[in-house]
Amino acid sequence: MAKHDFKVQTQWRGGREEVGTVSGDVITEQISIPAPLGGNGTGTNPDELLVSAASSCYIISLAATLERAKFTNIQITNDSIGTALFENGKFKMATISHYPKIVVTSSEKEKLENRLPKLLEVADHNCMISNAIRNNVEIQIQATIQ
């Protein structure tokens, strides 16, 4: 079993209107409660970081899955949307929807169209973030090939 620790440090001072920081090996960013939720709106926030983690994990997993399936001359752009709901007195991330756009050569388009549904599923099941949130957050994937 391989093990790897991902370390971050967060700092906060004051109440809900203030601004904190999150930093790790690479990322250093201000954090606050999003303005639409009554917060400061400075920097990023945990909700955006969760959707960013899911999106970046999925696009990397999809690229690796396509590579293993011998689709190497590709370009992927992924838009992701996290939809949060307020119910029973608390916020919950209900869904994260991924919209990958895959650009392939015209000679590979039909071959990819035939295999894409299975490859999208494999990529989702190989994504560590998808696996971490599965059964708590619905993950939706709607891909297009160009």
TrEMBL record:
This is OsmC family protein. It holds the Pfam family OsmC. Transmembrane segments: none annotated. It comes from Staphylococcus borealis.
